[in-house]
Amino acid sequence: MRARVRTGDGRLGGVLGYPLKSLFEEVAFVSYHFHWPPESVLNMEHADRRRWVQEISIINQRINSA
């Protein structure tokens, strides 16, 4: 089971030790491309969020190389 941390506003946070800058980049990237609320992306498991980042990147590469 992963450790959960309460943020200043009482919400549960993510995994301890994950770089905050990387977390914000992933959330912004997925939220921007899929128009999902940042809170929904932030609450995903790390592996799921990374998978969406990879899938979006693959789609972008295909579009840009066409």
List the helices and strands and how they pair.
Elements: H1 20-34, H2 38-42, H3 46-65
Give an overview in words.
The radius of gyration is 13 Å and the shape is elongated. It has 66 residues and is mainly α. The chain has a domain at 20-65. It is 61% helix and 0% strand. The mean pLDDT is 86. Helix 1 (20-34) packs across helix 3. It has three helices and no strands.
Keywords summarizing the entry:
66 residues; mainly alpha; 3 helices; elongated
Quick summary:
This protein is mainly alpha-helical and 66 residues long.
Number of helices: 3
How much is the radius of gyration in Å?
Answer: 13 Å
Low-confidence stretches are none
Mean model confidence by pLDDT: 86
Helix content: 55-70%
Task: Measure the end-to-end span.
Answer: 43 Å
Number of strands: 0
From the spread of the alpha carbons, the general shape counts as elongated
Which strand-content bin applies to the residues? Answer: under 5%
The secondary structure category is: mainly alpha
Which series of helices and strands comes N to C?
A: HHH
Largest sheet: none
